[in-house]
Write a structure and sequence with these properties.
single chain, about 300 residues, mainly alpha, MetI-like fold, 2 domains, 2 strands, about 75% helix
Protein backbone atom coordinates (compact mmCIF):
# COMPACT_ATOMS: atom_id res chain seq x y z
CA UNK A 1 0.00 0.00 0.00
CA UNK A 2 2.77 2.42 0.93
CA UNK A 3 4.68 1.65 -2.28
CA UNK A 4 1.52 2.14 -4.35
CA UNK A 5 0.88 5.52 -2.74
CA UNK A 6 4.49 6.53 -3.33
CA UNK A 7 4.21 5.54 -7.01
CA UNK A 8 1.01 7.58 -7.37
CA UNK A 9 2.65 10.58 -5.71
CA UNK A 10 5.72 10.28 -7.93
CA UNK A 11 3.54 10.01 -11.03
CA UNK A 12 1.58 13.12 -10.00
CA UNK A 13 4.84 14.96 -9.29
CA UNK A 14 6.21 13.98 -12.71
CA UNK A 15 2.98 15.08 -14.42
CA UNK A 16 3.09 18.41 -12.58
CA UNK A 17 6.75 18.86 -13.48
CA UNK A 18 6.04 18.05 -17.12
CA UNK A 19 3.15 20.52 -17.12
CA UNK A 20 5.35 23.28 -15.70
CA UNK A 21 8.00 22.39 -18.31
CA UNK A 22 5.56 23.08 -21.16
CA UNK A 23 4.11 26.20 -19.51
CA UNK A 24 7.50 27.68 -18.56
CA UNK A 25 8.37 29.32 -21.95
CA UNK A 26 5.01 31.16 -22.05
CA UNK A 27 5.35 32.05 -18.36
CA UNK A 28 8.83 33.48 -18.88
CA UNK A 29 7.63 35.44 -21.92
CA UNK A 30 4.67 36.84 -19.96
CA UNK A 31 6.86 37.79 -17.00
CA UNK A 32 9.38 39.63 -19.15
CA UNK A 33 7.34 41.17 -21.96
CA UNK A 34 3.95 41.70 -20.29
CA UNK A 35 4.15 41.88 -16.51
CA UNK A 36 7.62 43.43 -16.62
CA UNK A 37 6.46 46.03 -19.13
CA UNK A 38 3.46 46.90 -16.95
CA UNK A 39 5.67 47.50 -13.92
CA UNK A 40 8.10 49.49 -16.04
CA UNK A 41 5.29 51.69 -17.38
CA UNK A 42 4.20 52.43 -13.82
CA UNK A 43 7.73 53.66 -13.08
CA UNK A 44 7.80 55.77 -16.26
CA UNK A 45 4.46 57.36 -15.30
CA UNK A 46 6.32 58.93 -12.37
CA UNK A 47 9.05 60.36 -14.59
CA UNK A 48 9.68 62.92 -17.31
CA UNK A 49 11.17 60.91 -20.20
CA UNK A 50 11.57 61.80 -23.89
CA UNK A 51 13.20 58.51 -25.05
CA UNK A 52 16.46 60.33 -25.74
CA UNK A 53 17.61 61.30 -22.26
CA UNK A 54 17.50 59.50 -18.94
CA UNK A 55 14.12 59.49 -17.15
CA UNK A 56 13.78 62.21 -14.49
CA UNK A 57 11.69 61.28 -11.48
CA UNK A 58 8.85 63.80 -10.97
CA UNK A 59 6.54 61.87 -8.65
CA UNK A 60 2.83 62.42 -9.21
CA UNK A 61 3.32 65.54 -11.33
CA UNK A 62 2.12 63.84 -14.54
CA UNK A 63 -1.10 62.63 -12.89
CA UNK A 64 -1.77 66.05 -11.35
CA UNK A 65 -1.21 67.82 -14.68
CA UNK A 66 -3.63 65.48 -16.44
CA UNK A 67 -6.50 66.51 -14.18
CA UNK A 68 -5.56 70.17 -13.66
CA UNK A 69 -3.90 71.57 -16.79
CA UNK A 70 -4.56 69.14 -19.65
CA UNK A 71 -7.33 70.74 -21.73
CA UNK A 72 -7.60 67.72 -24.04
CA UNK A 73 -7.95 64.88 -21.50
CA UNK A 74 -11.64 65.32 -20.66
CA UNK A 75 -12.55 66.16 -24.26
CA UNK A 76 -10.91 63.01 -25.63
CA UNK A 77 -12.34 60.95 -22.78
CA UNK A 78 -15.73 62.28 -23.85
CA UNK A 79 -15.05 61.14 -27.42
CA UNK A 80 -14.10 57.71 -26.10
CA UNK A 81 -17.28 57.47 -24.02
CA UNK A 82 -19.31 58.45 -27.10
CA UNK A 83 -17.96 55.42 -28.94
CA UNK A 84 -18.64 53.18 -25.94
CA UNK A 85 -22.20 54.45 -25.45
CA UNK A 86 -23.07 54.14 -29.16
CA UNK A 87 -21.17 51.03 -30.20
CA UNK A 88 -22.06 48.72 -27.29
CA UNK A 89 -25.89 48.81 -27.54
CA UNK A 90 -25.98 48.91 -31.36
CA UNK A 91 -23.55 46.01 -31.84
CA UNK A 92 -25.21 44.07 -29.02
CA UNK A 93 -28.69 44.38 -30.56
CA UNK A 94 -27.64 43.80 -34.18
CA UNK A 95 -25.38 40.83 -33.44
CA UNK A 96 -28.16 39.15 -31.45
CA UNK A 97 -30.65 39.84 -34.24
CA UNK A 98 -28.28 38.41 -36.86
CA UNK A 99 -27.64 35.35 -34.70
CA UNK A 100 -31.37 34.68 -34.43
CA UNK A 101 -31.81 35.09 -38.20
CA UNK A 102 -29.01 32.66 -39.15
CA UNK A 103 -29.86 30.14 -36.43
CA UNK A 104 -32.23 28.24 -38.69
CA UNK A 105 -31.41 24.53 -38.82
CA UNK A 106 -31.65 23.81 -42.54
CA UNK A 107 -30.12 21.02 -44.61
CA UNK A 108 -28.88 23.42 -47.26
CA UNK A 109 -25.79 25.63 -47.17
CA UNK A 110 -27.62 28.98 -47.28
CA UNK A 111 -27.46 29.53 -43.51
CA UNK A 112 -23.77 28.62 -43.38
CA UNK A 113 -22.99 30.94 -46.29
CA UNK A 114 -24.74 33.83 -44.54
CA UNK A 115 -22.75 33.14 -41.37
CA UNK A 116 -19.46 33.19 -43.30
CA UNK A 117 -20.35 36.42 -45.13
CA UNK A 118 -21.37 38.16 -41.91
CA UNK A 119 -18.30 36.91 -40.04
CA UNK A 120 -15.72 37.89 -42.68
CA UNK A 121 -15.48 41.62 -41.77
CA UNK A 122 -14.52 40.77 -38.18
CA UNK A 123 -11.46 38.76 -39.29
CA UNK A 124 -10.41 41.28 -41.94
CA UNK A 125 -7.60 43.65 -41.03
CA UNK A 126 -8.93 46.87 -39.51
CA UNK A 127 -6.43 48.78 -41.64
CA UNK A 128 -7.84 47.25 -44.84
CA UNK A 129 -11.44 47.81 -43.69
CA UNK A 130 -10.64 51.43 -42.80
CA UNK A 131 -9.14 52.09 -46.23
CA UNK A 132 -12.22 50.68 -47.97
CA UNK A 133 -14.58 52.73 -45.80
CA UNK A 134 -12.57 55.88 -46.48
CA UNK A 135 -13.48 55.40 -50.13
CA UNK A 136 -17.11 54.52 -49.33
CA UNK A 137 -17.49 57.68 -47.22
CA UNK A 138 -15.55 59.98 -49.55
CA UNK A 139 -17.71 63.12 -49.91
CA UNK A 140 -16.90 63.60 -53.62
CA UNK A 141 -16.63 60.12 -55.15
CA UNK A 142 -17.73 57.81 -52.33
CA UNK A 143 -20.36 55.11 -52.75
CA UNK A 144 -22.71 56.49 -50.07
CA UNK A 145 -22.86 60.06 -51.38
CA UNK A 146 -23.23 58.80 -54.97
CA UNK A 147 -26.28 56.82 -53.85
CA UNK A 148 -27.66 59.96 -52.21
CA UNK A 149 -27.07 61.87 -55.46
CA UNK A 150 -29.21 59.36 -57.39
CA UNK A 151 -32.18 60.44 -55.25
CA UNK A 152 -31.29 64.12 -55.54
CA UNK A 153 -29.89 64.35 -52.02
CA UNK A 154 -26.61 65.91 -50.93
CA UNK A 155 -24.61 63.66 -48.63
CA UNK A 156 -22.60 64.99 -45.69
CA UNK A 157 -18.83 65.43 -45.70
CA UNK A 158 -18.58 62.44 -43.33
CA UNK A 159 -14.96 62.16 -42.15
CA UNK A 160 -14.25 65.81 -42.99
CA UNK A 161 -17.12 67.15 -40.87
CA UNK A 162 -16.74 67.29 -37.05
CA UNK A 163 -20.48 66.61 -36.69
CA UNK A 164 -20.44 63.48 -38.86
CA UNK A 165 -16.96 62.02 -38.29
CA UNK A 166 -17.84 60.14 -35.08
CA UNK A 167 -21.09 58.67 -36.48
CA UNK A 168 -19.16 57.61 -39.60
CA UNK A 169 -16.62 55.73 -37.48
CA UNK A 170 -19.45 54.13 -35.50
CA UNK A 171 -21.08 52.88 -38.73
CA UNK A 172 -17.80 51.40 -39.90
CA UNK A 173 -17.06 49.68 -36.58
CA UNK A 174 -20.61 48.31 -36.25
CA UNK A 175 -20.27 46.74 -39.69
CA UNK A 176 -16.94 45.19 -38.73
CA UNK A 177 -17.76 44.02 -35.20
CA UNK A 178 -21.24 42.51 -35.54
CA UNK A 179 -20.14 39.27 -37.19
CA UNK A 180 -17.81 38.28 -34.36
CA UNK A 181 -20.37 38.77 -31.61
CA UNK A 182 -23.04 37.17 -33.80
CA UNK A 183 -21.03 33.94 -33.61
CA UNK A 184 -20.92 34.20 -29.81
CA UNK A 185 -24.68 34.64 -29.62
CA UNK A 186 -25.17 31.87 -32.17
CA UNK A 187 -23.21 29.50 -29.95
CA UNK A 188 -25.40 30.45 -27.01
CA UNK A 189 -28.60 30.01 -29.03
CA UNK A 190 -27.64 26.49 -30.05
CA UNK A 191 -27.35 25.44 -26.40
CA UNK A 192 -31.00 26.34 -25.68
CA UNK A 193 -33.13 23.14 -25.72
CA UNK A 194 -35.87 23.07 -28.36
CA UNK A 195 -38.18 21.56 -25.75
CA UNK A 196 -38.47 24.97 -24.06
CA UNK A 197 -39.81 26.57 -27.23
CA UNK A 198 -42.12 23.61 -27.85
CA UNK A 199 -43.54 23.91 -24.33
CA UNK A 200 -44.03 27.66 -24.79
CA UNK A 201 -45.80 27.07 -28.11
CA UNK A 202 -48.14 24.57 -26.46
CA UNK A 203 -48.93 27.19 -23.80
CA UNK A 204 -49.92 29.60 -26.57
CA UNK A 205 -46.83 31.84 -26.63
CA UNK A 206 -45.92 33.41 -29.98
CA UNK A 207 -42.36 33.87 -31.27
CA UNK A 208 -41.95 37.34 -29.78
CA UNK A 209 -43.07 36.17 -26.36
CA UNK A 210 -40.78 33.13 -26.58
CA UNK A 211 -37.88 35.40 -27.53
CA UNK A 212 -38.26 37.63 -24.46
CA UNK A 213 -39.31 34.85 -22.06
CA UNK A 214 -36.86 32.12 -23.12
CA UNK A 215 -34.14 33.34 -25.48
CA UNK A 216 -33.10 36.49 -23.61
CA UNK A 217 -32.97 34.87 -20.12
CA UNK A 218 -31.13 31.80 -21.42
CA UNK A 219 -28.54 34.03 -23.12
CA UNK A 220 -27.85 36.02 -19.94
CA UNK A 221 -24.31 34.66 -19.46
CA UNK A 222 -23.45 35.07 -23.15
CA UNK A 223 -24.84 38.61 -23.14
CA UNK A 224 -22.78 39.49 -20.08
CA UNK A 225 -19.58 38.21 -21.71
CA UNK A 226 -20.38 40.07 -24.93
CA UNK A 227 -21.03 43.34 -23.07
CA UNK A 228 -17.71 43.07 -21.19
CA UNK A 229 -15.79 42.43 -24.43
CA UNK A 230 -17.66 45.15 -26.30
CA UNK A 231 -16.99 47.77 -23.63
CA UNK A 232 -13.26 46.95 -23.58
CA UNK A 233 -13.07 46.94 -27.40
CA UNK A 234 -14.92 50.25 -27.68
CA UNK A 235 -12.67 51.86 -25.08
CA UNK A 236 -9.59 50.66 -26.99
CA UNK A 237 -10.66 52.06 -30.35
CA UNK A 238 -7.49 53.15 -32.16
CA UNK A 239 -6.71 51.64 -35.58
CA UNK A 240 -9.75 53.01 -37.40
CA UNK A 241 -9.19 56.46 -35.87
CA UNK A 242 -5.51 56.38 -36.82
CA UNK A 243 -6.19 55.39 -40.44
CA UNK A 244 -9.42 57.22 -41.22
CA UNK A 245 -9.26 60.53 -39.35
CA UNK A 246 -5.97 60.82 -37.41
CA UNK A 247 -8.06 62.18 -34.55
CA UNK A 248 -9.64 64.91 -36.66
CA UNK A 249 -11.32 66.91 -37.84
CA UNK A 250 -10.53 69.38 -35.05
CA UNK A 251 -9.97 66.54 -32.57
CA UNK A 252 -13.59 65.38 -32.86
CA UNK A 253 -12.64 61.69 -33.18
CA UNK A 254 -9.51 61.55 -31.05
CA UNK A 255 -9.87 58.81 -28.44
CA UNK A 256 -7.83 58.15 -25.31
CA UNK A 257 -5.86 55.45 -27.10
CA UNK A 258 -5.02 57.84 -29.92
CA UNK A 259 -4.14 60.56 -27.39
CA UNK A 260 -1.74 58.19 -25.64
CA UNK A 261 -0.18 57.40 -29.03
CA UNK A 262 0.22 61.12 -29.79
CA UNK A 263 1.91 61.85 -26.47
CA UNK A 264 4.27 58.91 -26.69
CA UNK A 265 5.29 58.59 -30.37
CA UNK A 266 4.66 62.08 -31.77
CA UNK A 267 5.54 64.37 -28.85
CA UNK A 268 7.91 61.82 -27.23
CA UNK A 269 6.47 62.42 -23.75
CA UNK A 270 6.65 58.82 -22.64
CA UNK A 271 6.25 59.58 -18.95
CA UNK A 272 3.09 61.59 -19.51
CA UNK A 273 1.75 58.95 -21.90
CA UNK A 274 2.37 56.23 -19.31
CA UNK A 275 0.41 58.23 -16.74
CA UNK A 276 -2.47 58.58 -19.22
CA UNK A 277 -2.34 54.84 -19.89
CA UNK A 278 -2.56 54.02 -16.17
CA UNK A 279 -5.51 56.36 -15.64
CA UNK A 280 -7.21 54.82 -18.67
CA UNK A 281 -6.52 51.31 -17.34
CA UNK A 282 -8.02 52.18 -13.94
CA UNK A 283 -11.16 53.60 -15.60
CA UNK A 284 -11.70 50.43 -17.66
CA UNK A 285 -10.92 48.23 -14.64
CA UNK A 286 -13.45 50.04 -12.44
CA UNK A 287 -16.15 49.89 -15.12
CA UNK A 288 -15.52 46.15 -15.56
CA UNK A 289 -15.76 45.61 -11.79
CA UNK A 290 -19.05 47.52 -11.69
CA UNK A 291 -20.40 45.29 -14.46
CA UNK A 292 -19.35 42.16 -12.55
CA UNK A 293 -20.93 43.50 -9.35
CA UNK A 294 -24.15 44.32 -11.17
CA UNK A 295 -24.14 40.85 -12.72
CA UNK A 296 -23.62 39.16 -9.33
CA UNK A 297 -26.42 41.20 -7.75
CA UNK A 298 -28.80 40.33 -10.58
CA UNK A 299 -27.75 36.68 -10.34
CA UNK A 300 -28.55 36.64 -6.62
CA UNK A 301 -32.08 37.97 -7.06
Amino acid sequence: MIRTKRKKLSLKANEALLGWFFVLPALIGFSIFTFGAIIRSLYYSLTDWDLLTDPKFVGLKNFINIFTSDKYFFRYMGNTLFFVITLVPIVLALSLLLAVLVNKKSKGFSSKIYRVILFLPSITSTVAVSMVWMWILNPDMGLVNNLFAIFGLEGPAWLNDPSWAKPALVIMRVWQMCGYYMIMFLTGLQTIPDSLYEAAEIDGANKVQSFFSITIPMLANTTFAVVIMLVIEAFNMFESVFIMTSGGPLGSTSTMMYYIYEKSFIEYRMGYASALAWIFFIIIFVITLIQYKFRNERGGE
